[in-house]
Amino acid sequence: MKLLLILFVVSFAGPALTQTPQTDCDRLASHPSDTQNPAAGVEQEDFDIPAGRAACEEAYTRHPDEPRFAYQYGRSFFYAEDHETALPLFKQSAEGGYAQGQMVYGLVLMMGYGGEDQECTAGKWWLAGARQEHLYTKIYLLQNWLDGLFDGCGLDLTEEEASAMVGAAVSMAVVPQARDDAAQLKDSWAAR
Which of 69, 109, 137, 164 could serve as a FRET partner for 188 with CA atoms 20 to 30 Å apart? Predict the structure, then answer.
């Protein structure tokens, strides 16, 4: 559970990679670590669940195939502890190729919210997200990969690609917490 809380507390602002215009859903329900979102994002403790849910329901209804809105809408349910509603939205976001959705869906699977722990499935989603410009997906994937969590999962990740991801994570980290997390990853990588 501690890892889950860290996920929702970490702040990272990155470039917006989205094509759908910014909405109230983005302003009220995006997360600061979401590098593909056009808004700054809000931390869990600042998340207004009713307002965020209403804005995201509207955005999701207008753009049901936009994985960004599926993730943010799911976030409004997850924080209200309605995991049954949140998980399919996170999965839809992951399947739509949204890196933040891939990271969070992998994380909730690792935490057992999708049933029994599903490390290999989480690793697959984290690898997909890590191959995009998403700092924390790189960090979660590589720390767990180094810890051997994905041994036997058949992840298509080479040492060369992993090393490049470590370097990318270090260069992407711009706020103090992100720099600390990336430095820890770099140290773990050097000690392997």
Answer: 109
